Amino acid sequence: MSVKISAADVKKLRETTGAGMMDCKNALVEAEGNFDKAIEILRKKGQKIAAKRADRESTEGVAITKISDDNTYGVAIVLACETDFVSKNDSFKELAQEFVNIAFNYNTKEEFLAADFGGVTVAEKLIEQTGVIGEKIDITAFEKIEAPYVGAYTHVGKIAAIVGLTAVVDNAAELTKDLAMQAASMGATSLSYKDFDPAYVASETEARIAAIKKDNEELVRLGKTLKNVPQFVSRLQLTDEAIAKAEEEAKEQLKAEGKPEQIWDKILPGKMERFISDNTTLDQEQCLLDQKFIKDEKKTVAEYVSSYGDVEVKNFVRVTLG
Fold first, then answer.
1. What is the pLDDT of residues 188-204, one digit of tens each?
2. pTM for the full model?
3. Which of UniProt's keywords are assigned here (predicted)?
């Protein structure tokens, strides 16, 4: 004898799981009206779909942040999916919000995935929703920071950054938003060149110089202006000796050009500034404080921060899709 499934039962199961109406009805029919068993049936369906789609790439989704009311800590996560169509769905965005609200209370991704989500773990909920949505969804990024003052910025739900300051200053909200926007848009991976491993810098120097020399070979063939080949790529390499040598070479160049020695002091600062710029390309690309400030490229980010007084950037994180 078949069990009658009411519209109210289907609606309740749909609200609990987020599954489609027909999936909910079919699960209730298979479970003979047993609500808990129907939920388990939907979860098993999610597990099967998740297993089939395990090797799929989740390169779309939503990057989202949550900051504490007192601005002392914040979390950023990425809820990833396979298609842009799903990522733009309101229910997917709502799910991301539910996840970040839970993530807010944990310090690591592992703790977050093991946390409770309506009677199941977050990890199990992800599998369940894979069955509901029909494509792989996953938490591909989890970052949390604490500082005396924390602020964030999210770019169209695709890139998010959180920045922590060493002190609370006037207009700290504006400062952290500007810095988080800088991190989001310019893709910094380190706070300062001081954080670099010397071996990494040496490897990058060799690779970058080799790439420029190869480009120059083609430019020679085309009869075009050659690119400058730097000696270095980071301030980590600009020792006092390296700076002194560059200054002496600049003076020799001015002498060869017949520039009067009494005006060298006016010309040298510009030449040294250019030398440092040409030989710190790695810092400018990857170090937040050493980048040109996007709202005023006459300043570095470090110089912009110093304009707020006795405060520094303590830490930052950046999460993005893909």
1. 999 999 999 999 999 99
2. 0.80
3. Coiled coil, Cytoplasm, Elongation factor, Protein biosynthesis
